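Reply to dn_fold:

You asked what the input looked like. This is it:
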Amino acid sequence: MMPQWSKSCTLIFIRLFNILQPFKIQNSPLTPVKSGIRSLRLRVFARVLLVEILLSYMKLVFACFQGLSLLALFSINPLIMSATLASTGQSKIALEKDIAKQPQRFCQQDLAKGIEQIINRPELVRSRWGIEIQTLTGKSLYSLDGDKFFNPASTAKLLVSAAGLLELGADYRIKTPIYSQGKPPVLNSLRIKGQGDPTISTQSLKNIVHQLQLKGVRKIENLIIDDSYFTPPTINPSWEWADVHSYFATAVNSTILNQNTVTLTLLPQQIGQPVKFFWDDAIAANQWRVINHATTGTDLEYAVEIDRDLGQPLLMLRGKLAVNEPPDVWNLAVVDPAQYFLESLRFHLLRSGITVTRGTVVERENLDLLEPELTAIYAPPLQKILTEINQESNNLYAEALGKILAQKLQVETPINAINQSLKQIGIKPDEYILVDASGLSRQNLVTPQTLVKILRLMSQTTEPKIAQAYLDSLATAGIDGTLKNRFINTSVQNNLWAKTGTLTEVGALAGYLQTQSNSTLVFSILVNNSELENKQIRQAIDEIVVIVSRLEQCH
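and this is what came back:
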């Protein structure tokens, strides 16, 4: 593939060639055909203009040659090349050129110096760092405020994932039973009892409809969506209100459909005109009202904002979308998920010739109902759900798992369920403070040592299948999940299995690392109170991990 700088230089040469073309044509617009002084003046003016244009483009050509020379120089060192490509938007790891100067091997006594050279840089020194590095046997190799509380961001998902595996097992499948009264072709009622399955999709609804058709159902008197399994609230009150209209902070209820998410796409129009928008799901779209103040601008920096008017389902579009921008895609929360489930299922039933007299949403459990089970929806095994939680950092999946654990263990909250479960492996509730299962809350607190302890103990569980499932749920450096575009072309690629964490002013990474000397280490790195952009925090964390990967036993 042609490097970006080469493409740019080629573009410049083509433009230069196009500029010269009119001057080769006898009757071009800049070569007047009329005789006399006017014609002569135009020729002189054209030549002066040509010279100025040529000088400008020659400067660009010279800059291209300089850039290509630097590119050739950088290609000698993969680490420098990696950092350079990242700065131009390539999906490569953004490691600083300084890492290339680091020793290719570290002894334990040199590890602290190598780490501190990074975290004490002027741009990083004001951030708060928590680092814990241990062997699988628990021997500490490096600790910086390892016993202090930090906001863990999404590395908090390591806790609910461990609890889910310990309580339910890797093969557990969430069941959504479907009950009925009456006999085909007319059912008196059809009740879908939601139990928090976050994987149910439109295709799942179509499968239900197909089964009903095969059973000869032609009419349903009362279609019931039972949303009573989880206790309220559906939205964690500690989440920031500015987030709750976004897909990553959507409601977590019992009957989840399409991850309770709907997509809004903005399209630029002519300059000065309002942007156009469309939804990917008309039923979910009907729950939102949109006030569109966003307009189409010239070729300028992206400046679109979408805000929610708290207390009502109102979205406000503001700012400008450049006329040459591609479609601007926003994934937003569904306002009323249970009603969305009901209306979507009703739509597909009617579309398939099954009429529905009325539809209702039930939010309180009715223990008197004794309908027979007609069929059921089964989620994929828990292993698949954990992969979505830890590799893709899916908040909805993590919160749903926490609520399912609370129901299974018959405790009041997901946090109580996590506490009870983690006690089994020796993690005490006073070692962390959680207010949600996903790590989205700003009120979560975990020590680096606690994250390392969970990782270490899960690798030593008496059930090898549990330990393997936990490891497999994590993202692999340079391969998949949230680590797919990190650590590329370094010794860490394919040798790190970890959970990432990102919030504004927060960066985190915790997992298992296989060093160049084939030792497996367990680590956690938490950064709080940082004014830097997330990519800068990630870059510093990645540099530290690369250094740790070079650790060897020295005598």
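The chain has four domains: 4-76, 97-171+382-552, 175-232+337-378, 258-333.
Hope that clears it up.
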